[in-house]
Write a structure and sequence with these properties.
Shape: globular
Distance between the termini: 57 Å
Number of helices: 15
Number of strands: 19
Length: 485
C-alpha cells in the first residue's frame, strides 16, 4: 500500500477563520541564535582545532562533506539541543545551520546525486561513521579516525586558555558521576551505590570551565585516574599562568586517597581540600566540640522559649584536629571537624587539607582565614561543580553514550564537553553584563539561540530575517557586538 503523509494540520478555529499549519515554509530555521555560536567558534577556532584531531582517509574526489563541516555540525547540533543523530536527517536541510558549519553550498544545489539535492549537510549515517571511527581503524567504512590523545590534550589546552590570566589561585574540582546504561555497551558494570549498570566518568572543572572528561567503567574506585589527570593538568596551568600560581585540588571524600594526597604534598604550590568520611575515632575526637555546641544550643532554645520565640533548629561549631589513619595514611594531617546539631540529631562532618592557614598568599582571602571559613566558604562551594556536571549531562547530553564501543562513547562525551566549552565561553565573553550572564546552558539555548529565522540566499548575500517578536533583541545585539570585530 502507498504511504500517506499528512500535509496540513488543522487546529481549533479562531472565530470564523480556520487554523491550519504545514511544513511548507521553505528556508526557515528555528535556530537563529546559531549565528552567535558561529562567531564564538570562529573566534576560538575550536571546531577547526578539533577537526585536526581526526585523520581523514577518504578519497578527495568523492568527499562531499568536509571533515571540519561535519565536526561543526555535530558540536553545534549538541549546543542547539539536538542530542540524537537521527535529528540530522531533518537538520541537514537547514541552510542556516549549513552557514554556521561553514558549508558554502547553503541550499545543497551542488550535491552529486539527485536524491541529495537540497541537503547541504551530512545525514545520520555519515555522522555515525564519524563517531564509530574512534573505535575501529581501517576497513572499508572506517575512513575517518579520531586521535584520543590529541582530543584529550586539546580539551585541556582550550580549557586552560579560558582561565583568566590574572588568576592568583586556581581551584580544580574533581568529581565522578554515574552515566546509566541501558544496553550492552563495552565496559558496562553494575555499581552497587547507584544500583544500576553505568559508566563512571571522571570530570575536572575550573569554575565553569571543563578541563577533563574521562569515560570509565564503573568497576573501579571513583578517584582512579586522578593522579594521571593532575600530571597533565598542573603542568598545563603552570605553562599558561606561570609557576607562581597556587593550585588547590578540591573533591569529596571519594578523593581522599593516600596516593592523591601524597602526590599533591610533594609538589610546591599545589594543595588539596578533600572531604573525609567519618568514623568512630574521628567522632570521638569531635565529641568535646559537640558537648559545647549542645550546651549552647540548649541555652538558646531555653531563652527562645522564655521569650516566646521559635526555637533554633540547628547549631554548629568547628574543631581543628590532627589525625592519621591506622594503616593507609603515611603521615598525620590537618582535619577540620564540623559539629552540627540539626533537627535534634548530630551531624558530624570532616575535611582534610594540607593548608596550614599561615600561607602568605592566603592572608587577604577570607575563605582561608580559619578552619570554619575553609569548610563553609571554600569546601562547600564545591557543590557548584556538581551543578556543572548536571548542566553538561542534562543540557549537553553527556550521558548519551549509547553506542557499543567504549571509544565511541568517549568521543561522544568529548563532543558534548566541547559544546559545553563553547557555550561557557559565549556566556563569559559575549553575555557578560546581560540577564544571561549567569544562565545555564539550557537557559541560554532556550532564550537566546532558539529564534525563528527566514533565510534568503542570493548571489551577493545571505539574508537572515529574525523574528520581530523575539524578546531578547538587546541581548542578541550586545552579544553580537562583542563577538564581531
Amino acid at each position: 500500500m502507498p504511504e500517506c503523509y499528512q500535509q496540513t494540520f488543522g487546529f481549533q478555529a479562531l472565530g470564523p477563520r480556520r487554523v491550519e499549519a504545514d511544513f511548507t515554509g521553505g528556508h526557515l530555521s528555528s535556530d537563529g541564535g546559531v549565528l552567535l555560536l558561529r562567531e564564538m567558534d570562529r573566534r576560538m577556532q575550536l571546531c577547526d582545532k578539533l577537526a585536526r584531531c581526526f585523520s581523514d582517509h577518504r578519497h578527495p574526489e568523492f568527499v562531499e562533506h568536509a571533515l571540519g563541516v561535519m565536526v561543526r555540525q555535530r558540536v553545534l547540533g549538541l549546543a542547539l539541543g539536538y542530542e540524537d543523530l537521527n535529528d540530522h536527517d531533518r537538520l541537514r536541510t537547514d541552510p542556516l545551520l549549513a552557514a554556521a558549519c561553514g558549508n558554502p553550498d547553503l541550499l545543497g544545489e551542488d550535491r552529486r546525486h539527485e536524491a541529495d539535492k537540497g541537503k547541504p549537510l551530512a545525514g545520520k549515517s555519515t555522522l555515525n561513521r564519524l563517531e564509530l571511527g574512534a573505535a575501529q581503524r581501517g576497513g572499508k567504512y572506517r575512513k575517518i579516525n579520531a586521535d584520543p590523545g590529541a582530543i584529550r590534550d586539546l580539551l585541556l589546552k582550550e580549557g586552560v586558555r579560558a582561565i583568566p590570566r590574572k588568576s592568583r589561585v586556581v581551584v580544580l574540582d574533581f568529581d565522578a558521576t554515574d552515566d546509566p546504561l541501558h544496553g550492552n555497551q563495552e565496559g558496562r558494570f553494575y555499581h552497587g551505590y547507584y544500583r544500576e549498570y553505568c559508566y563512571l566518568p571522571l570530570y575536572c572543572f575550573c569554575g565553569d570551565i571543563p578541563l577533563w572528561a574521562e569515560l570509565r567503567g564503573a568497576d573501579r574506585d571513583a578517584s582512579q585516574g586522578t593522579v594521571a589527570a593532575l600530571e597533565r593538568i598542573v603542568p598545563a596551568i603552570r605553562r599558561r599562568l606561570g609557576k607562581g600560581v597556587v593550585i588547590i585540588v578540591r573533591g569529596d571524600s571519594g578523593f581522599c586517597r593516600e596516593e592523591i594526597m601524597a602526590w599533591i604534598e610533594a609538589r610546591p604550590g599545589v594543595h588539596y581540600v578533600f572531604g573525609l568520611a567519618r568514623n568512630a575515632r574521628l567522632q570521638e575526637m569531635l565529641a568535646p566540640e559537640f558537648a559545647k555546641v549542645r550546651a549552647t544550643h540548649d541555652d538558646a532554645c531555653a531563652k527562645a522559649r522564655q521569650e516566646g520565640r521559635e526555637e533554633p533548629r540547628s547549631a554548629r561549631g568547628f574543631a581543628e584536629l590532627q589525625y592519621s589513619t591506622l594503616k593507609s595514611w603515611s603521615r598525620t594531617r590537618r582535619v577540620i571537624g564540623k559539629a552540627e546539631i540539626t533537627g535534634g540529631k548530630d551531624n558530624p562532618r570532616f575535611i582534610v587539607t594540607d593548608l596550614s592557614g599561615d600561607e602568605a598568599w592566603a592572608r587577604d582571602l577570607p575563605a582561608f582565614a580559619s578552619g570554619r571559613a575553609l569548610y563553609e566558604r571554600f569546601y562547600c562551594a564545591r557543590g557548584e561543580m556538581e551543578n556543572r556536571i548536571k548542566e553538561q549531562q542534562l543540557d549537553l547530553f553527556a550521558d548519551r553514550t549509547s553506542t557499543t564501543p567504549l571509544a565511541s562513547n568517549q568521543l561522544r562525551l568529548w563532543l558534548s564537553t566541547f559544546a559545553y566549552l563553547l557555550l561557557a565561553r559565549l556566556r563569559r565573553v559575549a553575555l557578560k553584563g546581560t540577564v544571561l550572564a549567569r544562565a545555564t546552558a539550557g537557559s541560554i539555548r532556550l532564550r537566546l539561540l532558539k529564534i525563528a529565522a527566514m533565510v534568503t540566499v542570493s548571489v551577493r548575500r545571505v539574508h537572515i530575517r529574525l523574528a520581530g517578536a523575539f524578546p531578547l533583541q538587546e541581548v542578541f545585539a550586545t552579544a553580537r557586538g562583542k563577538l564581531v570585530t
